[in-house]
């Protein structure tokens, strides 16, 4: 029991660790430095406002210095030798700093003007959409994206028809927002996220304040708004070029490949995959976590995570024959992520974090499962020998591909440690090759067993008719079948049996 607790020490996460660090009661997120969506936005806006004020102070200080330097230089020179004001570097600096101050002022009021613009009559006229340069997606992908967008737009319009006046305004504001976002492709991911979250909050506040809608109705409307907006914006905001999401994806993918040797016993996972029902739930969990990348809406991606997690809970419950606990769930989720190696995992997590309706991440089962997935990925990134109750030497041997825990266990114990490897870079392809060879060896053994069973079945089928024939012959020998022949006699034969027959009829002649 103590050894199991020691192994769990590197995986166990208290439920309090999943909550916001500010103690507001909502779920936190690693992408928000352990804060919930609400507290993160407040902190982000506070830091951003402070940065703007610091920039203003710096600009004003530099401007005063330039003005003093210009005044001193201007006083030392004679009037005849002075140049035109527009050609003097001091004036150029003053003009540049004036533009800098104007830029910071516009940055300060950006949030207010953006929200006003969404709900102003001027939003009816929008600038023309620009076609991104340097991007040429394949025709099949473009057609599929176009079909998906058209279907979502039709479904969104049909849904809004039932809302009458609020529906018309929602559709107008959503269209204006999409057009507005098309001109902000050069913004960073945080700024894009801030724009989307501002729009969510503004639209929800207007629905609750102006139209007196209930919180349940607003939640349903916001789900449809998120589906419509994010389907339209998906290509421009998922894994944008201004971020290092793609680099993180490759790092995480290579890390999971390097950990292919981690066994279910090392993670203390309470799942017995030898049970058919457990194996079926594990396969479905892997399918759903991989399917997450094919979805375009943050809520749909969350749905894949939730369905994956529920199948994990089912597999644990079937194995333990009792409800699964949170301590059982996290190691099992890590095991599923290692087996699945989902594509673009970091990009999907960042996409959900930036553009999902924040209420879904703060509470409910979607928020709980998503927070656990973030913890699982963080654990995989920091996994070391102590986390798996291994010695550093064993961990390095397994990571380098020079040994495998599966081979060690099949030999009835741990193998003797080999001499230290030379200080050269280990090729990860060799580790993957070793893993593939072990998998092929296991498949070969299973195929041999299957062929042996097939040959046994074939021998049984061939011997069965012979055994049936022998049984029939034994029965006939014990109970022989005798067929007695009987001769038929004429009805007027002289035999004993005819004595009991009546005499033949005598013809009679009647006179006329």
Tell me the total number of β-strands. 0
- Mean residue pLDDT: 77
- Please tally the helical runs, counting DSSP H or I stretches of 4 or more residues: 18
Task: Based on Cα principal axes, name the global outline.
Answer: elongated
Largest sheet: none
Q: Given the helix and strand composition, which structural class is it?
A: mainly alpha
Order of helices and strands: HHHHHHHHHHHHHHHHHH
Gap between N and C termini: 129 Å
The percent of residues in helical segments reads 55-70%
Low-confidence residue ranges: 1-10, 82-97, 111-136, 413-426
CA gyration radius, whole angstroms: 40 Å
Beta-strand content:
under 5%
Summed up:
The chain is an all-alpha fold and 512 residues long. It is built from 18 helices and no strands.
Model description:
This protein has helices at residues 2-8, 37-76, 89-108, 110-118, 139-161, 165-182, 189-209, 215-237, 245-258, 276-291, 298-320, 326-340, 345-355, 358-362, 364-382, 392-400, 405-410, 428-478. By secondary structure, the chain is mostly helical. It contains 18 helices and no strands.
SSE map:
Elements: H1 2-8, H2 37-76, H3 89-108, H4 110-118, H5 139-161, H6 165-182, H7 189-209, H8 215-237, H9 245-258, H10 276-291, H11 298-320, H12 326-340, H13 345-355, H14 358-362, H15 364-382, H16 392-400, H17 405-410, H18 428-478
List keywords for this structure.
single chain, 512 residues, 18 helices, 64% helix, 0% strand, elongated, disordered N terminus
